[in-house]
């Protein structure tokens, strides 16, 4: 371009700088091309960094980027932000590599000049686009769906730093919204804005200056002072003050380089370690002995468990035998948490507050020095030993018997409190090997073959959405219901799906309160996406186009918990989580509902109390799901290897 040679001479010290007004006229019609040239010149200069090099002229050239931003309405701001990010990475690399080659003070001072100018330009590129702020405001105030905000931020990262027409950072306005809802004490909105603040402040590119940071804290402290100025007021506003103090802790983590799992978890209100009294109480319970529990039936079924080889929390077992009438009796045996601890106990309350077991990408040390990748909802010794369905050890369970005819219809069912013994602890691979090659163990072979036959019958009744199936087949969460269409994983999947469906149906048919797992979508939108995937799948030789599938996961709605609703993805009218009480709090809530509604005859007062409890737990669990997802992502970023 016309200005390129002139700026090269200026950088070499043999030419003059171009006047900003003249430069603006030169590039007004092709701002994007000018941006590419400017960054190319800057990168070339940085590539020749040495002890004598002064970067003042580089900073002056970067100012022309600001001229382009200020004078171009249709400039590609995303391109500028991307190039600034790469330039920032280069500065970091030069700083690290130059530690052994250059004078440290000179290197830092010169690079810091460029770094500060890059930050100014990034702020300028983001704040000069009011449409982005309008978009973010619409997503936050009108859509009120964090999933849509996550999806938008993934493809427009600058949204987390947008400013309004008065140059107020979006985080300041969010904190003001949070404080408004503190004063009204709208807990539902508080959860929403709290999660939103956590999400935005945890993004890698989120940036506020010192002044904005102080504004955030001042806004919160003003409200704290207002609510606690008088002792009587402080006592009355105790809950409100707790919410505000929690927000202070979140804001104070901005910019911290967290390296400890507990520090990261605290930001998301996640408890990693158990208090000593909880651990001690969990050790007081023991595995069952025959004849000591009159309300439980001792079963002699041939039960096997099927899990990953590395699984230590074994929470489900299966049995299956053919009846004299030609039908099959499928037994699904689930580890019972409430068989060991009352629902109102401290241990169960702790599990409910933790929501679900968290699986991390990298290990950490627990309080006893053990290396673990799991943050469990229950103390380790109980969830992996006393409560786990370990081979050849009697355990307390909930057993669900389903009699199925030759068309896969459930013709009879029984739910009982049981004492069971897992006869064979198996991995998916071991079961698949038996399905393919057989085994000399006749009882084991008979059970697995019966399970396979039942699975085929259930397959014919399943109406899982294809898109839901594709997404869930690739889930990495061991506590999630993995949708599989073959082998041992399909045996487990169909058995768990049947149990969750039939238990939910029991509650619905009797008009009892239940914590349902609900899933709804816009069918028209998803149909269009499915058609796009199908077309691309054909193009790629019948294989799912994985990048597109990853994109779809960003917009495909996840399930949630509620007192009513169907599950579109699984294609069932009613569904609940009840097969993994060692890993999910929702399953414990459903087990409690069975205690109230199935094991005894509930009164109207019992049902009302249960309904209120389920309503409260649904709101709590739904609010915590996002925090856990974000915690796992941040932990993975920090400890990525």
Concise description?
By secondary structure, this protein is of the alpha+beta class.
Task: Walk me through this protein's architecture.
This protein is α+β, with helices and mostly antiparallel strands. 55% of the residues lie in helices and 11% in strands. It contains 25 helices and 10 strands. Strands 1, 2, 3, 4, 7 and 8 form a 6-stranded mixed sheet that branches. Strands 5-6 form a two-stranded antiparallel ribbon. Strands 9-10 form a two-stranded antiparallel ribbon. Helix 3 runs antiparallel to helix 4 (56-71) and helix 24 packs antiparallel against helix 25 (604-638). The protein is elongated and about 100 Å long. The mean pLDDT is 83.
SSE inventory with pairings:
Layout: H1 2-12, H2 20-27, H3 31-47, H4 56-71, H5 77-97, H6 104-127, H7 130-143, H8 146-155, H9 170-184, H10 187-201, H11 210-228, H12 231-236, H13 238-252, H14 261-267, H15 276-282, E1 297-298, E2 303-307, E3 316-322, E4 328-335, H16 346-354, E5 358-365, E6 371-375, H17 380-386, E7 394-404, E8 410-427, H18 428-437, H19 442-459, H20 466-473, H21 487-509, E9 516-518, H22 523-539, H23 546-555, E10 560-562, H24 585-597, H25 604-638
Parallel strand pairs: 1-8, 2-8
Antiparallel strand pairs: 3-4, 4-7, 5-6, 7-8, 9-10
Question: What is the overall silhouette?
Answer: elongated
Share of helix, binned: 55-70%
Number of strands: 10
Q: How far from one another are the termini?
A: 43 Å
| Class from secondary-structure proportions | alpha+beta
Q: What share of residues are in beta strands?
A: 5-15%
Question: Averaging pLDDT over every residue, what do you get?
Answer: 83
The major pleated sheet works out as:
6 strands, mixed
Number of continuous helical runs? 25
Runs in which pLDDT lies below 50 for 5 or more consecutive residues are: none
Radius of gyration: 30 Å
